[in-house]
């Protein structure tokens, strides 16, 4: 594959979410909260980028699952940020919608990798 990981749609979506979070959380918001949600969203991008360098499907699946875990953490924290008043309901709902769609995209890739592995596995009789 000669595609750079920056061009992967799933990575572009993760980056867009991270940039939205960075833009929407204000400097005067709770430093700890802001730091945690930003770090979690950056971790999603990092694990997707690491996937690109892996040759073995099992390693790819593990990295994608970790990316989904971090994205779920972002979902939880954005929901909390809305309740704390750090984000408007409209902004939080937009980011939550994007995060949910990202998890669907990642899950779809994991499913495709697993189906490919099952198809290529030797049949035991």
Keywords, separated by commas or semicolons:
125 residues; single chain
Question: Could you walk me through the main structural features you see in this protein, from its secondary elements to its overall organization?
Answer:
The structure is a single chain. By secondary structure, this protein is mostly helical. The protein has 4 helices and no strands. The longest helix has 32 residues. The model has no long low-confidence stretch (mean pLDDT 87).
Structure at a glance:
This protein has 125 residues and is mainly α. The chain has four helices and no strands.
SSE inventory with pairings:
Elements (H helix, E strand, L loop, with lengths): L8 H16 L6 H23 L3 H28 L4 H32 L5
Helix pairs in contact: 1-2, 1-4, 2-3, 3-4
Strand content: under 5%
Number of helices: 4
Q: Structural class per helix/strand content?
A: mainly alpha
Shape: elongated
Rg estimate, integer Å: 16 Å
| Overall pLDDT confidence | 87
**Residue windows where pLDDT falls under 50 for at least 5 positions:** none
Compressed to H and E, one letter per element, the order equals HHHH
The major pleated sheet works out as: none
Please give the share of residues in helix.
over 70%
Q: State the separation between the terminal residues, measured CA to CA.
A: 34 Å
Count of DSSP E strands?
Answer: 0
């Amino acid at each position: 594959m000669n595609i750079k990981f920056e061009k992967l749609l799933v990575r572009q979506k993760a980056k867009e979410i991270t940039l939205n979070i960075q833009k929407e959380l204000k400097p005067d918001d709770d430093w700890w909260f802001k730091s945690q949600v930003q770090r979690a969203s950056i971790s999603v991008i990092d694990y997707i980028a690491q996937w690109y360098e892996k040759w073995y499907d099992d390693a790819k699946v593990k990295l994608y699952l970790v990316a989904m875990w971090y994205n779920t953490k972002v979902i939880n924290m954005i929901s909390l940020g809305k309740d704390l008043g750090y984000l408007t309901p409209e902004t939080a709902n937009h980011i939550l919608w994007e995060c949910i769609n990202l998890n669907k995209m990642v899950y779809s890739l994991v499913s495709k990798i697993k189906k490919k592995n099952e198809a290529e596995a030797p049949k035991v009789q």
